Amino acid sequence: ISELFAGWKxxxxxxxxxxxxxxxxxxxxxxxxxxxxxxxxAIQIRTEISWxxxxxxxxxxxxxxxxxxxxGWRGYALPKLExxxxxxxxxxxxxxxxxxxxxxxxxxxxxGVPEWQxxxxxxxxxxxxxxxxxxxxxxxxxxxxFHFSFNLGLDLVVTKLELINLSxxxxxxxxxxxxxxxxxxxxxxxx
Length: 191
Fold this sequence. Notes:
The chain has 191 residues and is mainly α. Helices cover 76% and strands 0% of the residues. The protein is globular and about 50 Å long.
């Protein structure tokens, strides 16, 4: 059990990794801007967001998915997969597992976009986050921040600020996350 929680003690990493951890929020707003350029429409905030709502979003996204999921996905499953496979293959396998896990939830509460888009984003995301996990000295703090930022950014631009809908966002996410995954693969030498 101490091995499982060891990644939580690895918070003393370069500030660069904390900045990497918030990149998904930047990606969410960048995708919104790209969509605005493609459609030739100015970005319009359709709803206001209070500080209380923002605080509750922070608490919800920290507790709801990122913290517990990262303990299991990156704290346990990824190291076990990496004992047998490369980081790249481990990331792909984990991406497929996570996609399947979430697809079960989507049967109950559909997300309104083709499921294959979600799967492709998740596989790319898992390749990236596997690289982040390994490069940050197996810090669960950093990958939890990355996951938290992904969920928060998505919730902000789609649900709370209503800047973009999922059917517009996901194709752009595919392009961005696929490009980043390719860069990570090339930079790490396809390991």
